[in-house]
């Protein structure tokens, strides 16, 4: 199948071609036709499989083909849990809609609302928003959703898991005349099912299971070191020169900030991303990382789904994640766009090893245990010696 087979308009096909897309991913091939037909949809696919284009392309096509109900009114709304993800979705809409006469804007909290309000006053067809700022501006009378046609919840499971259930349902309750509701998610949680049951009508359900071809190609390793030597182990990996762009994940904001400071003192260009950092700083950090100016980004799980960069060489889990799904989302930042990735998880205690074993069983992953030998080489841990692998020097 090609994008031509999906019967998208010529301007969209031109933009898709210029973006380097050749064939639709499984979620795109399955989701675009029903969204084009105006059906409600619940789409489940692993992270990094092209869900944004799966809803953005048919949405742009439908908005172009149909006359607006009211001039200058918001016609489509995409709700997303994090500011970084909202900005990246906004960039995707600009790229896909470059040859269309549709206006889009992004709104989120943590920054002054004046520029966002000014953009809204000029008239917006497509609004990409985070729930908190959206409800604030609705309450102040700056946003009217009465003419809304299409509503998409992106990363629905993550958004509802972060405590936005009431915010999301409050927004949905305001929309009386929409014709299309899409839920896109990496997993179908009970909360996602509840929202679907309450608000969707005769929905199409699409689940794209990972195949050997579509699975991210990620070599996964665990490294057992004394707890106080985790930072030294991480520095060995970073200084090896084998990885040019790396994301390091921590469980807490305090550890995230501390590692960032320690790496900079060690002469490594690194910065961090967590909830206490001002929005302007977050945007600059993400821009530097995306454009290759920042080789190491340290983040908490709040940021894990807001990072959409195709050429991340590797992921280091400084802490074992607290939830099984978090591990999947973390390592999903690498091995994207059919490129090979690598992940390391540092184990400093028996509880951490037990938790990683639970994650591997839950996800069906093969995580190879490694240790540093006396020469500083990564070698299989003793229990794995019957499966010899070549030494990798870090």
Structural class by sheet pairing and helices: alpha/beta
* Cα-based radius of gyration, to the nearest Å: 22 Å
Strand content: 15-25%
Q: What's the overall geometry? A: globular
Mean pLDDT: 86
As residue ranges, the low-confidence spans are: 385-390
- By DSSP (H or I, 4+ residues per run), the number of helices equals 14
Number of strands: 16
Biggest sheet features: 9 strands, mixed
With strands numbered from the N-terminus, the spatial order across the biggest sheet is 10-11-9-12-13-8-14-15-16
Q: Gap between N and C termini, in Å?
A: 43 Å
State the share of residues found in helices, binned by percent: 25-40%
Series of secondary-structure elements, N-terminal to C-terminal:
HHEHEHEHEHEHHEHEEHEHEHEEHEHEEE
Overview of this structure, please?
The structure is a single chain. The protein has 394 residues and is an alpha/beta fold. α2 packs parallel to α3 (51-65), α3 (51-65) packs across α4 (83-96) and α13 (324-331) packs across α14. It has helices at 10-18, 26-36, 51-65, 83-96, 114-121, 131-139, 156-161, 165-174, 190-199, 230-239, 253-265, 279-290, 324-331, 350-363, and strands spanning 41-45, 76-79, 104-107, 126-129, 150-154, 180-185, 204-208, 217-224, 246-249, 270-273, 296-299, 314-317, 340-347, 368-372, 377-380, 392-393. 38% of the residues lie in helices and 19% in strands. It has a nine-stranded mixed sheet, with helices on both faces. Strands 3-4-2-5-6-1-7 form a seven-stranded parallel sheet, sandwiched between helices.
């Amino acid at each position: 199948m090609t994008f031509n087979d999906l019967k998208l308009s010529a301007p969209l096909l031109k933009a898709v071609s210029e973006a380097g897309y050749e064939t639709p991913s499984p979620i795109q091939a399955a989701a675009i036709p029903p969204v084009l037909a105006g059906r409600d949809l619940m789409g489940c696919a692993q992270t990094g499989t092209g869900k944004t284009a799966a809803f953005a392309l048919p949405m742009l096509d439908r908005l172009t083909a149909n006359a607006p109900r009211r001039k200058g009114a918001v016609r489509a709304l995409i709700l997303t849990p994090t500011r970084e993800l909202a900005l990246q979705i906004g960039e995707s809409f600009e790229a896909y809609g470059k040859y269309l006469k549709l206006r889009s804007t992004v709104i989120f909290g943590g920054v002054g609302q004046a520029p966002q309000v000014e953009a809204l006053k000029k008239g917006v067809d497509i609004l990409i928003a985070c729930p908190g700022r959206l409800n604030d501006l609705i309450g102040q009378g700056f946003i009217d959703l009465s003419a809304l046609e299409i509503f998409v919840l992106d990363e629905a499971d993550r958004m509802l898991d972060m405590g936005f259930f009431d915010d999301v349902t409050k927004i949905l309750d305001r929309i009386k005349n929409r014709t299309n509701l899409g839920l896109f998610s990496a997993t179908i949680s009970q909360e996602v099912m509840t929202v679907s049951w309450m608000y969707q009508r005769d929905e199409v359900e699409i689940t794209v299971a990972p195949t050997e071809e579509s699975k991210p190609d990620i070599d996964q390793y665990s490294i057992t070191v004394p707890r106080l030597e985790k930072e030294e182990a991480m520095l060995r990996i970073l200084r090896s020169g084998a990885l040019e762009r790396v994301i390091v994940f921590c469980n807490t904001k305090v550890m995230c900030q501390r590692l960032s400071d320690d790496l900079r003192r060690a002469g490594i260009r690194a910065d961090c991303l967590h909830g206490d950092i001002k929005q302007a700083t977050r945007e600059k950090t993400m821009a530097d990382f995306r454009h290759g100016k920042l080789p190491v980004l340290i983040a908490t799980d709040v940021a894990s789904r807001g990072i959409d960069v195709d050429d991340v060489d590797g992921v280091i889990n400084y802490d074992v994640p607290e939830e099984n799904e978090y591990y999947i989302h973390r390592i999903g930042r690498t091995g994207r766009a059919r490129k090979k990735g690598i992940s390391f998880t540092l184990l400093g205690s028996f509880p951490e090893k037990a938790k990683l074993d639970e994650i591997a069983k839950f996800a069906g992953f093969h995580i190879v245990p490694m240790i540093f030998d006396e020469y500083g080489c990564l070698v299989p841990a003793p229990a794995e010696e019957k499966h010899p692998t070549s030494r990798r020097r870090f």
